Amino acid sequence: MHGTLSVMNATSPLFAFVISILWLRFAFSWIQLVGLMIGFTGLIVFVGYESLQFSWIPFICCLLGAFMYGACSNYLYKLSHIDPAYLATMTLIVGTMMFLPFSVYEGGVSFDLPRKVWISILLLGFLCTGLAYVAFVILIRRMGPVGASSVLFIVPVAGMVWANIFLNESITTSMLSGCFLILLGVGMTNFFGPELKEDKL
């Protein structure tokens, strides 16, 4: 199921591509579309066909999340005249406030945690989420919603490298083949995409 969810999550650049054309009136680019499909195929090769499973509720939820992610990328591009740090901060605050009631409802919330856990939470929250999201907003401004969203394809590649370095996990031929397709697709998406509009409003 994890392989399926990672693949479905990676449909967000495809949604961003369609939304950018319908909403922001970006020029259609066949090379960019082919690049997205190559990157998506590379992700499937990377996770392996055998890991793909299907279940309706997770499938629909993940697909809806990918759609919202693609829409958010376009909306952030439309607002890219605003300071990136402010945009990223407000986005994360609103997301946290919307998620908080569900966390309380599920129960199990505890603040009595070891120091190492708190340090990990702070690092994940500030560095891996906060600063990373500011960088993502800047990326949207410079590369557009489609180009910035396509970096999602690179996440499993980075995960593979770190897992090999820190966890001594093996790298398979299918992973390397998938990485090649992913990098090729991301390159085509970003280097051959339409020129960005100066007026975003």
Please specify the SSE layout and strand pairing.
Elements: H1 2-9, H2 12-22, H3 30-47, H4 56-78, H5 84-106, H6 115-149, H7 155-166, H8 173-191
User: N-to-C terminal Cα separation, in Å?
Assistant: 40 Å
How many domain regions? 1
H/E order of the elements?
HHHHHHHH
Largest sheet: none
* Shape verdict: globular
**Rg for CA atoms:** 18 Å
Number of separate helices: 8
Report low-confidence residues grouped into runs of 5 or more: none
The overall pLDDT average reads 83
Class computed from helices, strands and strand pairing: mainly alpha
**Strand element count:** 0
> Strand fraction band?
under 5%
State the helical fraction.
over 70%
Produce a short descriptive summary.
The protein is an all-alpha fold and 201 residues long.
Question: Can you walk me through this structure?
Answer:
The model has no long low-confidence stretch (mean pLDDT 83). 74% of the residues lie in helices and 0% in strands. The protein has one domain (2-191). By secondary structure, the protein is mainly α.
